[in-house]
Amino acid sequence: MRLWMNNAGNMTGSAGQTYIDNGFMLPELYVRGSFIDNGVFSVDGPTGNINAGLTTLSTTTTGASLDTTGVVQVSAVISGTNGGAGAVVGATVVDSLGGIWQVATISGTGGSAKAATLTLIRAAYATTAPSNPVSAQMMNSNTTLQLTVTWSSNRNQLTLQPSGGNTLITGNATISGTTTLSAVTSTGNLVLSPAATSNVLT
Exposed/middle/buried for 102, CB within 10 Å: 0-12, 13-18, 19+? Predict the structure, then answer.
């Protein structure tokens, strides 16, 4: 396998920064699983499909799909008395699904102190909620914990141009399902073709 850097050589600017024209080139590398996966962002090796949180950008037989679906971690409690040992407030806890937590409070003192409550730092995502308990480990130690995780499926709305900019569709658009169109003003035109039998504008 060969690892290529850019084909134009490294160049150093006047401020001392080093930059290259292109990134890594791996022309002979085939990845059977995920090319990269840190729990919240992944790129599939065989297809190049991208997962970012609950959003998936993938190729289809007719083109491409941008979809948001699945569940996300929202909170966790210690499962039973499995709060580890030697816990300290502020310690980082990483669960087996990629979620990152911070110890908010502890019970006990010294080497017998256990994590009592956790604060969510970075949520993990999944297609469906895994079963509890979820194993976790405290960073920089061998301390293990068991968590009961709560998941939410209420984050499946895909928003385009939330800043208020225009969305331009140059081809045909098919709208299926119940659709609510809001804030339609006289300064813009909304064209549905063929004409819908029932349009509700609020």
Answer: middle
Tens digit of each residue's pLDDT (9 = 90 or more) over 3-29: 444 445 555 555 556 666 667 777 777
Containing structural domain, residue 85: 72-152
Q: Residues 65, 58: contact at Cβ < 8 Å?
A: yes
Do both 84 and 129 map to the same domain? yes
> Based on the domain organization, do 79 and 146 belong to the same domain?
yes
Tokens of 170: 């140059």
Cβ(85)–Cβ(146) below 8 Å: no
Our CA dihedral for 58, 59, 61, 66, rounded to 10 degrees, sits at 40
- Nearest CA to 24 out of 54, 56, 2 is that of 2
If asked whether residues 25 and 58 sit together in one domain, one would say: yes
In the structure encoding, which two tokens stand for residue 160, read together?
Answer: 């385009």
CA atoms within 13 A on the CB side of 134: 23
Average pLDDT rounded to a whole number, residues 177-186? 59
Taking CA atoms, 33 is separated from 30, 42, 68, 122, in Å, by 9, 10, 21, 23
